[in-house]
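Let us work through a complete example step by step.
Step 1: write down the sequence.
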Amino acid sequence: MSGVADFVHVVEPAHRPRTPTLLLLHGTGADERDLLPLGRVLAPGAALLSPRGRVDEHGMNRWFRRLREGVFDVDDVIDRAEELAAWVPVALEHHGLAAPVVAVGFSNGANIAAALMLLHPRLLDGAVLLGGGYPLQGREPGAADLSGRAAFLGVGLTDPISTPDQARLLADHLSALGADVELSEHPGGHQVPPAVLEGARSWFEGRFGPR
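Step 2: predict the structure and record it as tokens.
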């Protein structure tokens, strides 16, 4: 059984009514505080729930193991996604946080957020996936139903870590399962330029902003 202490995490309560909860998922080598500024930009006043990945790769925090750069341990992806999926509802209840729940992930964090959508389709209402790709490398997600869910994907056309092909593959899988997907490509590499950030903010406001 998952407990709220299973993941080191920080919480910022909502400061505006009828706002969603953002599940912030950091990239490799970062921690639970890394994406707090991004969350505040995407959804001012929303509740922020930001855990720390539990995999240690040579002193760097990650969400799942990899065999080498760009090659994931897919069995570990599945196991770690299950752990996180079990923890999220416990943390929401413990901290009194409300639905809808939207994941915001960068790089490795985007990959575990994508795994949550593919493997636990009722957990999240949406996701902002920045610098991520298809996390199940070579495996199909099964018959998940993502109807009513939405995702914004941001990817750099010269990204050597999360390539455009991987982001497009992820977008195709999410769309095939019924999600409403917006793919934003930019000419840069493994970063989030202002134009993509603004696109994500506008997408979020249109989908999940206060009504």
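Step 3: interpret the result. The chain has one domain: 4-208.
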